[in-house]
Amino acid sequence: MGNVVEQEGSGVPKPVLIIAIALGVLLAVGVAGVGVYGWYGEHQMREEAEAAAAARRTGPLAAAPIPAPEARSAECASVMSALPAQLSVGGTPVPRRALAEPAPAATVAWGDAEHDPITVRCGIDAPAELTPTSQLMDVSGVSWLEINQGGDSSWLAVDRPVYVALSAPADTGTGPLQDLSKLIGAKLPKQPVFP
């Protein structure tokens, strides 16, 4: 058979056998490479997400400016001066966190490397979500409107002379809301939601 050399007893030409073995090795190397690349990419994405979370949890917090026409009122001053230096989240004390400049008036934040930021703002505008048919929740005598945004919840005290908002990750629990309700109840007089 001219140039075709057969391997003894197999009936498969030697060049075909070499190509088949080489293709098998290349396929194995390719699959291993994709696996390593996939693991590396996943590992890299996880590290980047952890670094972003750490950056979000440390250093001065950039608080987005929002309309707060009553932020410099005597009522807001009364509430803000009574806020604690530490906030209890799940039984763990979480310290106050500095705000990035320019810091909005009547805004306080808590957070650390283990806890996403929790903020309180006072004197903000009435939210568009507040209507006569809104579902309100009473906590320690204070009427709250809940607004969910992404993974965060904002609670707005709507039955006081100024609107006070508490924003926190959805998994924070109700401890900060209960504590703030007691403080607001002691500092600000109750009034009708729609005077």
From TrEMBL:
The keyword Transmembrane belongs to this UniProt entry's keyword annotation: yes
One Pfam family named in its UniProt record: DUF3515
Record field: transmembrane: 16-40
Keywords associated with the record: Membrane, Transmembrane, Transmembrane helix
Protein name in UniProt: Uncharacterized protein DUF3515
Organism of this sequence: Saccharopolyspora dendranthemae
